[in-house]
Each structure stands twice: as structure tokens, then as C-alpha cells.
Amino acid sequence: MQALLQLLDHERRGRDAALLGLRDAEGSASQADAQAQALDTYRSQYVERWSARFRQPGSAALLLCYQAFMDRLEQAIAQQRAIVQLAHERLEQARRSLLDNERRVASVEKLIERREQQEQHRAARREQSRSDEIALAVHTRHNATPPTTEHGELPR
After folding, report:
1. pLDDT for residue 153 is more than 70
2. Which end of the chain is more exposed for a tag (fewer CB within 10 A), N or C?
3. What is the set of domains in the chain, with CATH numbers?
């Protein structure tokens, strides 16, 4: 039983570590999502701001700078989407890991519960056996004593 309790302790530590890993992955995924959202918002605001500017006459050099910046911004957004995808894959992996660890803990707990029930059952059988032996001894003693009458013992 001691070995099972040590195993349970080990599995619980593994589960706790997996839970911390999940929380860390959730934080990373949330941060990546927020960064992607911020880039999308910045791009929308930038396009809106410069769209009004391009309605007025301007230089071709300014347009080229705008296009070059937008290309770099689109690259950054694409890179951030890849980071978001990776963060969500790690999050799912962390969820699966936690679930596997929780299953192992539950399995060991169930095994310990069964062993305890088996031990209780064996103890109950031992107690019943002792009670039966005592009852048999009392019955044997009672039947071994010769019956008595008013005048004493009966002849044998």
C-alpha cells in the first residue's frame, strides 16, 4: 500500500506541473491573441488615417513609403498569426497533458480505494472467523458439561 501512496504522490505532482503548464500556455495564447488583435487594429487605423490623406494630392514617394510600411505591417501580422497558431497548439497539448495526468491520478486513487476495500473485506472475514471460533468453543464447552439434576450429575 505504501508503494501505491508514493505513486499517487508522484502522479499528483505530475498533475500539478501539468496544471501550471496549462496556465502558462493559456497566458501565452492570450498574449499572442492580444498582440494579433493590436496589430489588426493598428493596421485598420493606419489605413483609415492614410486613406483620407491620399484623397488629397501628394507625392509618389509618400505613396511608396506607405506601401512599403503596409507590406512590413502585413508581414508582421502574418508572423503574429503563426505565433498565435503555435500558441494555441501548445495550449491544446497542455490541455491533453493535464487530462492524461488527471486520468493517471484517478486510476491510482481508484486502485488504492479497491485495495482498501479488499483489506476491509479480509478484515471482516477474519473477524467473522474469530467470532465463529468463539461461538464454536462456547457451544462445545456448553455441550461438554454434563447436565445436572436436582440430585446432582447424571450418571455417564
Report:
1. no
2. C
3. 2-102 (1.10.287.1700)
